[in-house]
Predict the structure.
Amino acid sequence: MPAFLRRYLALATKEVQQLRRNRGLLIQLMIPPTIVLVIFGYALNPKVRHLRLGVVDESLTVESRDFIDSLTENVNFDVARRFVRARDAEDALNRLDLDLFLVIPSDFARSLHRGETAQAQVVIDAVDANTAQIAQGYLGRALLEYNTSRGADPVAEDRPRRMLLRAAHPAPPPGAPEVRPAYIYNPGLVTAWHYVTGVMSIIMFINASLVASALAVKEKETGTIEQLLMTPAQTGEMLLAKTSPVFVLMMVVMFVALGVGMLVFGVPVRGALWLFTVAGACAALAGIGIGVMVATVSKSQQQAQLLTFFVNPPITLFSGATSPIENMPETFQKISYFDPLRYLVTIVRGVTLKDAPWSALWPNLAALAGFAVVLFAISAWRFRKQ
Amino acid sequence: MKKILAQAIKEWRLFRRDKLLILLAVLMPIVLMLLAGRTQSLRLRNVKLLVYDYDNTLLSRTYLETYGAALTFRLTAHEPGEPPERALSAGRGRAALIIPQNFERDALRGTGPIVQLMIDATDSNAATALGNMAEALNASFVRKSDLIPNVPARVRMDQRLWFNPGLSNPVYFGTGALGMMLIIFPALLGALATAKEYEMGTIIQAYASSLTAGQWVMGKGLVYVLIGIVEFFICFALGMFAFGYRIPTNPAVLLVATVLYLLAGVFFGMMMGNATGTQSAAIQGVQMGSFLLSLLLSGYLFAVQNIPPQIRWFSSLLPATHYVQIVRNSILRDVGWETSFRPLLALLGLALFFYMLNVLQMRKMQFKG
């Protein structure tokens, strides 16, 4: 057996034994990610339902009630309360008892009968810009439906009602072009698929950096690093031995996460699994590289952990795992190219959900591998300088 | 009281010695808050739309223009000979618009041509939004193009958007980011400080000292709460620049809430430190328990009411949920005690709860003297 291999094996055995004794670390590596994955997959749901609608009906006629019904006949709005005065509804909105309220003026029915355009007003709490926008969309559709289905006769008895959810828009008049959306890769529009694949990637990367930095700095803190530096092993071998158990662990975590995603949420794996594995390995290496780098600049575990905490949230936020990169301002989009996690997220989604062609994935894989090599090399260099 | 102060001063001296820590404590919230407020947005813009126009007539190009004019889409030419499925799976666009042959002829004849929109639905939320957007654009095209006679609307609805009339996302996420910043760092410091005592073995001194468990926990936590308050002011000042924060008419609500929130966060962190006894495990606990959970379940990213009811109770156990609510109440809605009363109570309850857990953990181990 060559000497370097023997030295490596000896060191790696030491690390594995240390890790095995540290049962807490093993548990915390395996269990929280799984739980987090499940919670997030279930909990994250950007769909807006059951908005609390307040109604101020000053008209109190058949027509006004009919109009209110037409807005609330789907699951998007629930009439939370009715008010006599608009002032009370405003107060309720201020107290957060409502998400929006509708005011129907007293001349509503009269205007309808005269053939004029009747007025109504809606006030929306727009603090949550996203929800407000969606509410606006729902209202616009419901109104369009009401207006078109009514036709020219203001008191038409039989108004065909459609679930707004099912038919997003009233059927366009005959002859007009129509657009038919086809949702590919995720025709059931399962929200969890998007988040589970994103969170999976985050966990892989961030856990690797956290654990690596903790392990690397511990040696320094307890003073045993001197002993390590005195051994005949080269720094490269030392680093390899130190990180390979972590690396193996991270690979296990990765497949556990994928298994949970597949079993609990039915995430498909349509592409090549080896690509997923290689990408995960690169990401784990890059994460370990960042962790070791952080460990070399800090004096205590406290500092190291804080630094990783400082590095990790930006990596998460820029990666597009939680919100699409296209939505970010231009400069941030450019910065995101320096985020290794971005490539991992693309590959993970490409392999699991899309079966993306190799031609589209290899640049991402190359970038990820590049990051892994560079980060690992820098960390080795920093490690040696100690 | 004196004992609490003495413990706090000891803790402060320890903290002060670490220059890097102080630098991080100041720098981290600033950078992170900017990022957290600016990068997260659910509003779609400049989505690449691959165009397959098989008609290539005046009307089909007018139809395309309707899409091009919307801020949501950016029209992109497809590579020659590449089918839309392949272009989408390669990620060259997020959706493909396919206009059939004879689009113009059919439209003028009144046969109703069907335009297909293939959407990459890996992000189902964005996909639904894109589908709706396309249908709205289609409707607006029909209205403008005079292909069918226009019927005047029966009812017109005026919409008023309160509190955030520009529907600005930075305003929404910027206020949420304040809550994120104040949960991460103080909780982390609390966790580290407590876990360190276990690692160094100095926790024995606390067990043996004449301090009661309550005094020890309070004194230790106090310093980190104070640091948190400093961070709060830094973040608030930053928010005034970057996210248009206004000083609320009744700042007391926000201040009280901040103190309670910080107490809850620090005690949570210390609890993690107590429970795990090692710094790296404590960090992981805080990262999962306060950062990730707060980031995703507190209403910072998605409205709490969208979370399915089976898990929603969990959100109300997170201090961040209540605090983010109060921050938005105070800064954006500018309302006072009355509206924020319930979340304040919840914060107080959570702070007490975490405090009691700490005290119990400590008391178990203390020597009876």
Chain B has two domains: 2-40+167-365, 47-144.
